[in-house]
Amino acid sequence: MNGVLAALRERARARLDPVHWDFYEGGAGAETALAANEAAFARLALLPRVLTGAGPADPAVTLLGERLSMPVLVSPTAFHRLAHPDGERATARAVAAAGTVLITSMAATTAVDEVTAAAREVRPDAAVWFQLYLQPEPAVTEALVRRAEKAGCTALVVTADSPVFGRRTRDDRNGFHDLPPGLAAENMRDLPGAPPGRTRDIAMSPALSWADLRRLRELTELPVVLKGVLHPADARRAADEGVAALLVSNHGGRQLDAAPAGVEALPAVADAVAGRIPVLLDGGVRSGADAVAALALGAAAVGVGRPVLWGLAADGEAGVAAVLAELRAEVEHILTLCGAADCHGLGRDQVVVRGATGVRPC
Ligand SMILES: Cc1cc2nc3c(=O)[nH]c(=O)nc-3n(C[C@H](O)[C@H](O)[C@H](O)COP(=O)(O)O)c2cc1C
Ligand SMILES: O=C(O)C(=O)c1ccccc1
């Protein structure tokens, strides 16, 4: 792990209520999938090319028509006000200033219109995408989509890996199942079927299907990113269905504990999609080298979840800014050391698996 991130992680641990720390850090079951994410990156090494004359590298990328200052965006995570009183507003300001995309969670403790407003105070063209769990009641999903559209979000990120909520061992042990008084999932307020001023619970449903995704796409002009895809056949199907991008993810190890690391699933997904749509990756990205390895294996960009929560808990907006500045600097440095001109400049042949003698490609 990058040293700046590791130091912020320790500051976050020291500041947070241990129950909230466990909520952020923990995974499902025996935390096998959680551990697999960082372990999979640790097994990868980068083979640099020499004398390319390509550098210094430009870490910027374009994704769904938006220019990002680096190939790192912020994956959706619930409940930022548990980390810091400024919560998602602080995150949004830091992400906007860093020039990348924030995917704000449906389970945010700040309403999406306040999140976009905070981002735009810093940078008028800042991009915020809205993460959505399709709700079993179509009227509720539609109201959430309208809320995200009205707030100015420029994409919907539909999380498809949660037909049921994962069984989080630490939360069960700690009895953490509700937000403390004064905090709420603000996007869930004033929706159909709830009394005015009250929030609805976020529902997860195993009955959702591709037909529901199609109905969502008929409801909105916004591009839809499908999050939580691991199987190459699902990736192909998503591209056939007209999804704008994929986010390969095991949900930070919080859903199916038997799932592979995202980066283990990435090459087969990239092959299945064959460049038709951008493929994003999250889970265990803790350094510029991790991000660059994922790019070489076919990702257009990567997401970070927990590192942003560490920065937020350690030092609010400045902490999130420090995480993102460090990752951008590292990506630029590593690309340059690898002889690449930009984020498209590495091939899959430049990622090898450690532990073998000789050079074994991924
Ligand atoms: C505390 C926490 C809350 C999360 N909440 C959501 C969420 O509301 N929606 C979602 O799609 N993913 C959620 N995720 C998963 C992240 O979007 C992402 O897939 C994962 O955290 C990436 O792995 P990383 O934390 O190792 O970077 C959450 C993850 C964490 C750690
Ligand atoms: O998705 C998650 O991992 C998560 O922690 C969460 C928490 C509350 C509501 C929705 C998701």
Automatic annotation (TrEMBL):
One Gene Ontology molecular-function label: FMN binding
The FMN hydroxy acid dehydrogenase domain, residue ranges: 1-356
UniProt keyword terms in alphabetical order: Flavoprotein, FMN, Oxidoreductase
Organism domain of life: Bacteria
Region feature Disordered, mapped onto this chain: 169-200
Residues binding FMN, per UniProt: 76-78, 105, 131, 159, 227, 249, 282-286, 305-306
Record-listed glyoxylate binding positions: 133, 168, 251, 254
Active site: 251 (proton acceptor)
Cofactor(s), by name: FMN
PROSITE patterns with a match to the protein in the record: FMN_HYDROXY_ACID_DH_1 (PS00557), FMN_HYDROXY_ACID_DH_2 (PS51349)
Family affiliation: Belongs to the FMN-dependent alpha-hydroxy acid dehydrogenase family.
Listed name of the protein: 4-hydroxymandelate oxidase
